[in-house]
Amino acid sequence: MLVEALALSALLFTIGVIGVLTRRNAIMIFMCVELMLNAVNLSFVALSKLYGAAGQVFVVFTMTVAAAEAAVGLAIIIAIFRHQRTVNLQNINLLKG
Amino acid sequence: MNPALIPEGAHPLATTVARLVWLLPLLPLLGFLINGTLAMLGAAKIGPADPSADNGHGHGEAHGHGDAHAHADHGHDDHGHPPRHKFAKIVSLVGPGVLVAAFGLAVAIFAAMRGVDMEHPYVLTLFSWMPVGDLNLNATILLDPLSMVMVMVITGVGMLIHIFSVGYMQDDPGYPRYFAYLNLFVFFMLILVLGGSYPLLFVGWEGVGLCSYLLIGFWFSEKANADAGKKAFIVNRIGDFGFLVAMFLMFANLGTLDILGVAEKAAELPMGGVIATAIALFLFVGCTGKSAQIPLYVWLPDAMAGPTPVSALIHAATMVTAGVYLVARASGIFSMAPVAQLTVAAVGAATAFFAATIGLKQWDIKKVLAYSTVSQLGYMFIGVGVGAYVAGVFHLVTHAFFKALLFLGSGSVIYVMHAAYHATHNHDDAQDMRNMGGMKTYMPITFYLMWTATLAIAGIPLFSGFFSKDEILASVFARAHHSTLAEASLLGIPGSTLLMIVYGLGLASALLTAIYMTRMMLYTFHGPNRTGEAERPHLKEAPWIMTGPLVVLAILAAFGGWLNVPALLDAIGPVGGLEHFLEPVVGANALRTTLGEAPHLSHSTEYVLVGTAILIAVVGITFAVLRLKPAALVAKKDSPAATGFDRVLENKYFVDEGYDAAIVQPTVNVSRAVLWKGFDAGIIDGLFVNGSALLARAFGWMGSQLQTGQVGTYAWVLLIGVITLLGAFTFR
Amino acid sequence: MQPNQFHSLAYSFGFYFFGLIALASAVAFVTRKNTVAAAMWLVNVMFALAALYVMLDAQFIATMQVLVYTGAIMVVFLFVIMLLNLGHPSELADARGKWGYVLALFVGLALLAEVMALNRSSTIDKMIPPDLAAKAAAAAATPVAGGIIGPVAAPLFKEYLLAFELTSVLLLAAIVGSVVLGKRRTDAR
After folding, report:
1. Which of A90, A92, A97 lies nearest to residue B705, judging by beta carbons?
2. Is the pLDDT of residue B729 over 60?
3. Which of A53, B644, B649, B689 shows the greatest Cβ crowding within 10 Å of its Cβ?
């Protein structure tokens, strides 16, 4: 089943990527990133079945980082929303050169 | 000369005191370090205090003498203003001391050299200097009779001038600095003559140029002096360019820069070939700069802005003769290039005559001597140019004696004049001969000594100049009839004709020399005194520390001719001492020019030549004595401006003005318009500095356009990068 | 690769079942205009993945997936969505133009092709160093005492202890950061 698991991982990852590329809602993009992280986690778990538990350890780390990222990212989104009254990224270009 | 090297240790000199030859340049360097340190430690106020400059600073002796005129600010014991340097005593010991030691060592080495067979030069390798690719240069000392002669002149005359300087300069606030420079000069000069390779010689060559610059501008707070220093430096650089090109040509064509190696390789070149001629001519360009020949002579008269002992040592006796030494040193190349030799001789003759005419109408006593030096250097180049290397070097030696004497004597006169003017607070020109006159009653010793030198330079028989000058002229005459030079031609003029012209110019210059030197003596020492009533009581003989060296130099100037007595006068002493001494170095090269046989003139011809020379000297002196009336002269401030050709001569043919209009101003203008406004402001500032800033800004702008601030764009860019990288992994 | 251990038909069926659920939910998630609905579909993906984790013998990770991801992170997402009141239709016009979709699809397919190519078992075998593969295979073959958590806990607190401690620092920083960012500015600076 390893091949199937990896294929599923790739598919989920691609869906996440397409979501990031096509959506403009900051929270949607954020959730797409979470989907991509999950896809990678699936790869880790699938490979750990063959190559030892280290893959699962990495999943733990990924989850931690994802949690931290969610906390900070959502805080940023709230801060932006307070200023701009929107989370549409097309309207947010403070970093424009 | 057999340039084949024999091992260092096997040379007969290796077991003698000559192995200490490396100590010779180190002694003055030590003096430089000590005096330089003292100069920096006691950095007193630096200012002009030249007794030969009109600046009102003075000398202790003058004040001591001027007690009767007790000035409010002049104390009784008088070394009042400016105060003598606090390290003056140590400097007075160290400065001349190292020269005395060096001279002692030189004499010892000379004695050792006399005792051995000097068929081969003694080469002492000190250390590996520049091992770069094909070029493997060692710092070597080349000790052979030629460098020995130069070392003797440099240390001997240098020692006397150092001693004289103690009297002349000790009240100057920059006294330690002065001796530091002077010692450094001797160091570099010894490197120049002892250097075993052309680059090392060049180090000395540049070093003496530097010291010359420093000493000409010694009283740099006067703009004219600083300008004179700069002029000397810049004009010399033009010549040095020629020297450098010559070295490049040597390395490119001969593959070596070692003096002996070059001589060996040069002998294999074709006679009169392009390479030898080019190297020789470029070397001579260097010589025209250093030795003040046409067209680069203009710096030497201005160099008289320096202290008078400096003029004597650097600008008369030693440094300016470096060019002559170089031609003699590179005789192996020059003797392979008759065209270059003819050029040297022609330029020398033209310079000798040209400078002598200017000397006729100069009023500044040092300017007369300066043009005289240029003229005499021209003589030396005639000598080495026609392949009579011994004659050229011989004249170099005798000239060092009598010209140093003349300069130091004039220094004494200036010193006394200045002291007198200072005592009476007169601001007249202490160097102008129109302000002197009748000095023989006040300075009898200097008077007799100066006449000795004058007779020597004029070529009166049995004085040293007679022998050397006559030998040069005779050599020219002989080679005009039978030599490689006579067969060659320069600019379409056959060599034999050209050499006869050179000979004629030489005779004419001899006549002029006799006239202007007698004129200088008449105006300075004879006739009524024109200093003024107030100054007259202050005129007196210079102290013994100054006249002492003069006496020694006078003896040398009088009897220096015995160094190389011509065969014609074998009655008066051993014939050809210098000739035999220098034979291993230049003998073979001289013979090459004279087609393998010693130059031969019949006795009757020689008598005629010598007689002509004597006649010309006597006529010149007589003419000057009869024609010039010192009594008719008036002091400078009352003199009318010169008119007609006198004015042209007095203004040195307006050469300086011509150079200024033809070279300096266009250079300045081009520099300003093209180099500054165009190149510096336009290309460097505009294109490179501002341009690169503009470019950075343009790229920055382009980069900033990528920064849309849109997260979506960033995601796209990121993803494209990811796909590219993954693609590289997947499809490798 | 070792001989296939996932042999039973029921196992295969379960695997494909949950896989398809995950895939379908993901597609649904990414195409929803309504953010809340999208979030719910994402929760569905995560549940399906948790089930797959169990099937892949990673029970601990499956638990974490349910507890941390679905239980904590997604709840926070939903919470923020509700807080910002993003369910309004005015906020829904977040899709790019038609060409944006096409291009995104194209790029996505390219990426998929590449990842799939890399996922081929031969490629994976090539990419993993043989010594590591042998070691890992040996470790996987020997049953480890300590139940289902032991195999994960042992390396986590031994080999990766430093990284583990660093994640705690990361979490601390994240806490401080989110507090600072989320704090309402009281001063009118």
Report:
1. A97
2. yes
3. A53
Judging contacts by C-beta atoms under 8 Å, the chain B residues touching residue C107 are: 716, 719-720, 723
How many residues in total does chain A contain?
Answer: 97
Best CA proximity match to B308, nearest among B229, B409, B225: B409
Nearest CA in chain B to C115: B726
d(CA B430, CA B410): 11
pLDDT at B186 over 60: yes
Q: How confident is the model at residue C45 (pLDDT cuts 50, 70, 90)?
A: very high
The chain-wide mean pLDDT, for chain B, equals 83
- Token pair of B77 as six digits: 């014991």
B150, two tokens: 């130069």
Report the candidate in A66, B719, A31 with the shortest Cα–Cα distance to residue C115.
Answer: B719
d(CA B381, CA B362): 24
Measured over the CA atoms of residue B93, residue B96, residue B98 and residue B102, the dihedral's sign is: negative
Which among C92, C29, C83, C80 has a CA at the least distance from the CA of A24?
C92
Q: Supply the pTM of this predicted model.
A: 0.67
In the chain, the amino acid numbered B118 is: M
Q: What residue numbers bound the domain in which A80 lies?
A: 2-96
Chains that touch B (3 or more CB pairs under 8 A): A, C
Minimal CA separation from A37 to chain B, in Å: 15
**Across chain C, what does the average pLDDT equal?**
80
| ipTM of this complex prediction, to 2 decimal places | 0.90
pLDDT of residue B362: 86
Annotate B492-547 with three-state secondary structure.
CEEHHHHHHHHHHHHHHHHHHHHHHHHHHHHHHHCCCCCCCCCCHHHCCCCCHHHH
- Please state the rounded mean pLDDT for residues C168-184: 88
- The set of chains that have 3 or more CB pairs under 8 A with C is A, B
d(CA B329, CA B321): 12
Q: Report the pLDDT value the prediction gives residue C136, as an integer from 0 to 100.
A: 66
Question: Looking at chain C from residue 36 to 95, which residues have their Cβ under 8 Å from any Cβ of chain A?
Answer: 38-39, 42, 45-46, 49, 52-53, 55-58, 60-61, 64-65, 68-69, 72-74, 76-77, 80-81, 83-84, 86, 91, 94-95
Q: Average pLDDT of B23-45? A: 84
Q: How confident is the model at residue B269 (pLDDT cuts 50, 70, 90)?
A: confident
Average pLDDT over residues B265-273: 84
Q: Which of residues 13-52 of A touch C (CB under 8 A)?
A: 13-19, 21-25, 27-28, 30-32, 34-35, 38, 41-42, 45-52
Mean pLDDT of B600-608: 80
Q: Spell out the domain ranges in chain C.
A: 1-90, 98-142, 144-182
Match domain C1-90 to its CATH number in 3.40.640.10, 1.20.120.1200, 3.40.50.150, 1.20.140.10: 1.20.120.1200
CATH of the domain at A39: 1.10.287.3510
> Which tens digits make up the pLDDT trace of A35-46?
999 999 999 998
C115–B726: do the CB atoms touch at under 8 Å? yes
Domain count, chain A: 1
**What's residue B185's pLDDT?**
92
Q: Do A97 and B712 touch (CB under 8 A)?
A: no
Residue with the bigger pLDDT between B53 and B568: it is: B568
Suggest the residue from C114, C115, C122, C123 to mutate for an interface test with chain B (most B CBs closer than 10 A): C114
